[in-house]
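Support case: user asked for a sample of complex input and structure output to validate their parser. Sending the pair below.
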Amino acid sequence: MITAERKPIKEIKEMLAPYKKILVVGCGSCVAECAAGGEKEVGLLSSALRMDAKASGKEIEIKEMTLDRQCVYEFIDQLTEVIDQYDIVLSLACGAGVQAVAEVFPKVHIVPALNTTFLGETKEAGLWVENCRGCGDCKLGVFAAVCPVTRCAKGLFNGPCGGSKTDRCEVDPDVPCAWQLIVSRLEDIGRLDLLRKVHPPADWSKQQGKGPRKIKREDQRT
Amino acid sequence: MITESRLKKVLNSGKFAVTAECGPPKGADPEVVKSKGKILKDHVDSINVTDNQTGVVRLSSLAACALLKAEGLDPVLQMVTRDRNRIALQSDVLGASALGIRNILCLSGDHQSFGNQPQAKGVFDIDSIQFIQTVRKMRDAGEIIGGDKLTTPPQLFIGAVANPFADPFKYRATRLATKVDAGAEFIQTQCIYNLKRFKEWMGLVSDLGMADKVYILGGITPLKSAKMAEYMAKNVAGMDIPEEVINRMKAAPAKEQRQEGIKIAVETVQALKEIKGIHGVHIMAIEWEEVVPQIVEESKLFPRPQV
Amino acid sequence: MDQKGLGITRAILFCRQLDPNQDANRRAIEREMGARIRFFPLPCSGRVDPLYLMRALESGADKVYLITCPEGACRYREGNLRAKKRIAYAKSLIEEIGLEPERFELILTSAGNHKTIDEITRDILAREES
């Protein structure tokens, strides 16, 4: 899923400052799962913004809404009747959701309430970790299902750097050394020999070659 | 006139090589580099110049190497993949060769978060092993990544680093072998304080048949004080300083700790000379270059051979 | 205890397990204080969501209390520990908008507590006054 974190309220307030009627729109997918942009978080943030406005004698009107998905037109369409009544939209979606809404409503000012962070896994309650960079050229098959592009701080393809000590990454001792994981997994399955091969330079064009990437599937189109 | 790498000539002639490390200044003064070169010139075969080590901005390694070359030294250009993508790396490799630099040490580099630019974007387009392979192909096949031909290939003696003390230990010898497969011709190791573990690693290296395929130079860093030893043991990733070395430093009175550090360094050099497969030493006296001649002399490695 | 002069509103969120007769026991104080106090019984304090706390504050309460069972005595094992983390989050949120974090307060009843919810509440109000 895509993870995100709420921006500081101060930053959000600065974006909203000139406006009175605010539509706060959450997203019920990824960002709800990581407790950043679902219905509950829309409520918390709206509550805080209303109380803040009241305390500073400012009059604002906030409407709370949460779409099942903010990155798919069918769901964004639910805003059609509502959105024109507001001066600004504060979106609690990931960056993809914010931009999708903006594209559907080109004349509406829309601002993000979240910082979109990474593609990750819910490791345990309240803990999300990054484990995929969406590089477009998955090599998990040769790296014992541990992604060195994402989980090694230097993104090394050919083994650990000289800083791994007692299975921790030198950059952050809270993080396990990805290469230690790869090596011990390969050792367990008797395939350390896989590491004798030099992996050639990656093809980053699959990640960022010509600007934004797209996937086009004729069979899926109407 | 095409000069050759002195380091390569010393090693090829079967002599025990001595290299030292020189850190460029945090400023634009060429005299700092030249004076460090002057201190080291007669006592070492070649001088490594670090490339923004620990992610701290310093005078460029390539420029410092050119300055040392002009002073008649044989520089080893350290180049990290942290700050340059493959376009810049290959371009600088060609530039280095054109400037008469004949040795390159390929590294991934300390992570940018350790230095004074922690908000920098780490490039890591390719890793150190891919970089070794790239330079080797540029030199031997005259071709860059993707297969385009060079009009004139670079002339470089290609080196890599190895840390026998990092984990996973057993894999460390395999990693060295992979670097040799990729094209490394000489290896400079992390500084050695734990000789027992180093010998164990050399055993694994020999078992992989690498002892005869590559020149290995053991790393030496003289300890300035017991405090430094403790600091390094605790805070420098991948550093292995055994308790007995720290205790030995502590046992010396404060005024004599530098002398003790030099003594330990000399003893380590002597021990390394006796290990099969060790072809030289690499002395990294961090901001203490003036001690290098003393270590070289006391280790009976002076005068340096004329090649 | 004269609360009439205070004219402030209190929201009391509490764990129902604290007082089996909570429903009856809070009637008197509710009558006495009228709109100045509201009780919100929870099946377990761990069920509290920061959103309830925010909504309580937003709907006019000046101070929101969350009363939990003593530590280690939660019927659902760690409900009250969770309550502690939730209230900490809500505190950080109101701090961001410049409100005093003390507007949310966690009241951990002490082990061996046999007080009824109204007694606990009166203790809290008395402490506020002093």
